[in-house]
Amino acid sequence: MNRTTLAIGIALALVAGGALAHSGVKNATVLARMELMKDMGRQMKVLGRMDKGFINFDAGAVQVAVARIAVLAEKTPTLFEAPAQDPNSEALPVIWDDFSTFAQEAQALEMVTARLTIVQQIDLHPALKQLGAACKSCHGRFRK
Ligand code: HEC
After folding, report:
1. Dihedral over Cα of 111, 71, 77, 33: its sign
2. Alpha carbon of 92 to those of 8, 24, 84, 138, 139: distances in Å?
3. To the nearest 5 percent, what fractions of the chain are helix, strand and coil?
4. Rounded distance, CA 137 to CA 142, Å?
5. Which positions make up the signal peptide (predicted)?
6. Is residue 98 within 8 Å of residue 130, measured between CB atoms?
7. Over 70: is that where the pLDDT of 14 sits?
């Protein structure tokens, strides 16, 4: 390998590492639950960007994002049920010592989504606070 190909190889490795933090995760169960959580983050980002005025308020897009969070919350207990481990996972083992509380945290998030009324831009901020509190409540106890 000459010096140029080596440099290209290193550059590609750096790009891949930055773009795909999950690329090192080999366990399919762990990968699926990380992807689910990443999707949660994506939906919150849509709502957050609208709240900050980076994108225009769009009631339809809000509904899609909130409905997606509800579906993901509903799926959470199923995807985390198996105590799969991976060095890159941020899941704490206490999830499987106290799975019923973990499942309740997911249900609590789902219930928040059901209670939200977002009809205009100013409704987004309090809604995000409630959603964020539900995410944090679970992360605080069950995530590294
Ligand atoms: C019932 C518990 C629970 C709830 C509720 C929850 N999370 Fe998580 N979340 C976790 C756990 C556990 C992990 C670590 C998973 C792993 O690494 O194996 C995680 C990981 C994540 C990650 C990192 C994913 C990655 O790239 O590896 C993001 C982003 C995230 N959650 C966002 C959210 C958002 C946003 C919400 C609320 C809308 C939320 N989560 C609600 C338990 C929860």
Report:
1. negative
2. 37, 18, 11, 11, 9
3. 75, 0, 25
4. 9
5. 1-21
6. no
7. no
pLDDT digits (tens, 9 = 90+) for 36-75: 999 999 999 999 999 999 999 999 999 999 999 999 999 9
What string of H, E and C letters represents the secondary structure of 73-106? HHHHHHHHCCCCCCCCCCECCHHHHCHHHHHHHH
Tokens describing residue 128: 């995000």
Amino acid, res. 119: V
Q: Output the ligand 1 site: residues, CB below 6 A.
A: 30, 33-34, 37-38, 40-41, 44, 69, 76, 89-91, 102, 105-106, 109, 131, 134-135, 138-139, 142-143
123 CA → ligand 1 middle, Å: 24
Q: What domains are there in the chain, each with its CATH number? A: 25-142 (1.20.120.10)
